[in-house]
Specification:
Layout lengths: L2 H9 L7 H17 L4 E4 L8 E5 L7 H7 L5 E4 L1 H8 L9 E4 L7 H8 L13 E2 L5 H10 L5 E6 L1 H6 L3 H6 L4 E2 H13 L2 E7 L9 E6 L6 E8 L8 E6 L2 H5 L7 H15 L1 E7 L2 H4 L2 H12 L4 H7 L10 H9 L4 E5 L3 H9 L3 E6 L10 H10 L5
Parallel strand pairs: 1-7, 11-12, 11-13, 13-14
Antiparallel strand pairs: 1-2, 2-6, 3-4, 3-6, 4-5, 8-9, 9-10, 10-12
């Protein structure tokens, strides 16, 4: 093929995206817009039906004027119930996110960030009351979680913009609407659609036979790794560990957790057995991301334990998605495992996703004087078998 022919082929229009991949990319784009502080338009089943415009309370300082230009009704701040309860200084016995009515005096970037972030050193005025939830407030809240931002989002009606298809403001911002149902389906669709994209032999200090297999979501948003030692497919039920990435523990040797010891210990044990699979999952901080994990550490330094710190930030106790692990194992040809874990939830989650767990192998490491409370919380509040 000559050079001009090659250029012609590059210029050919791309093939139409698979519908599932198109949905994932739409949600990924919307979450990226939230991260960069831009407003996002969420729509319901029909044109303009229950449409809302959403903006991250954490990153939306510069996007606030555009958010207000797109809205056609009063905004609310959607927070997790635990965070809203902290702001209102009263219990809120509900699982669903809470909407707080905001007046003009609270539509200030610094105040919005402080309402979202319990680690912020910002005095807050008297808090507003709970408002009725807007349509699609739940998907807007879920989108902030997908973006690994603080789960706090400003939401306002935007039916007129959605019905018009592209108002002047929406056209100027290049907004592409995303369906609320697609947002809610995103975690499961992204996990089930993982694609095996690369692999190579990577001899490790503790496992000379190791190779690493990389997986990527169809929208390219996340990558997960499998560290494969020996020939686990040949075993009836190979040793498997689900290890959520931990930058501070795995790479820096943090004493606040036991992650680094668990990572290295698992690889050593698999090498000693002759085979095994360690899934290195991009789910830092039990799925809340590194930045939010550091915020949780700051709250722990103020007296909260791991679980209560996550909840105070608006996250659940454990936000991980173990369908990711099941999809990777099936792609590797592994359907039956002995699970190297202290966490019964991992056994139940893999079983629910169709992977047979034939046994549990304990994976306990001694406290180091710094992580004693962390390990005690794992046992007492997360149910780990320590």
């Amino acid at each position: 093929m000559n050079r001009l022919s090659a250029i012609g082929r590059i210029a050919d229009p791309p093939a139409a995206l698979d519908p599932a991949a198109a949905r994932l990319r739409g949600v990924h784009r919307a979450s990226s817009d939230l991260r960069r502080g831009a407003p996002v338009l969420l729509t319901g089943a029909g044109a303009g039906e229950g449409a809302v415009v959403a903006l991250s309370a954490e990153t939306g300082s510069s996007g606030l004027p555009d958010f207000l230009a797109l809205s056609d009704g009063p905004p609310v701040l959607v927070l997790a119930a635990a965070r809203a309860a902290g702001l209102l200084h009263r219990p809120l016995e509900q699982a669903e996110p809470v909407s707080l009515r905001l007046g003009p005096t609270l539509l200030v970037p610094d105040l919005l960030r402080a309402m979202a972030d319990p680690t912020a050193e910002q005095a807050l005025p008297e808090m507003p009351e709970v408002a009725a939830a807007l349509p699609l407030a739940g998907p807007a809240f879920a989108l902030a979680k997908i973006a690994r931002l603080l789960p706090a989002v400003l939401v306002a009606p935007a039916a007129a913009v959605a019905a018009a298809g592209a108002s002047a403001a929406a056209a100027r911002l290049g907004i592409v609407p995303v369906h609320g149902a697609d947002v809610l389906a995103y975690p499961a669709e992204a996990a089930a659609g993982l694609q095996r994209v690369a692999e190579a032999a990577v001899p490790l200090e503790d496992a000379a036979s190791a190779r690493i297999v990389a997986f990527r979501t169809p929208d390219g948003a996340q990558e997960h790794l499998a560290i494969v030692i020996g020939d686990p497919v040949a075993a009836e039920a190979p040793l498997v560990r689900l290890h959520s990435e931990c930058f501070t523990g795995d790479l820096l040797g943090s004493l606040r957790c036991d992650c680094g010891a668990q990572l290295r210990g698992a690889i050593q044990r698999m090498e000693a057995e002759g085979s095994g699979v360690l899934l290195y999952l991009a789910q830092e901080g039990r799925g809340i991301g590194l930045v939010n994990k550091l915020r949780a550490y700051a709250l722990q330094d103020r007296g909260l334990d791991t679980l209560d710190a996550n909840r105070a930030l608006g996250w659940g106790a454990d936000e991980r998605n173990f369908l990711i692990a099941a999809t990777m194992l099936r792609a590797l040809g592994v359907g039956r495992v002995r699970l190297l874990t202290n966490n019964p939830d991992k056994i139940a989650a893999l079983g629910a996703c169709g992977i047979a767990v034939t046994g549990r192998e304990s994976h306990v490491f001694a406290a180091n004087g710094v992580n004693d409370r962390y390990l005690a919380t794992k046992a007492a509040r997360f149910g780990h078998l320590l």
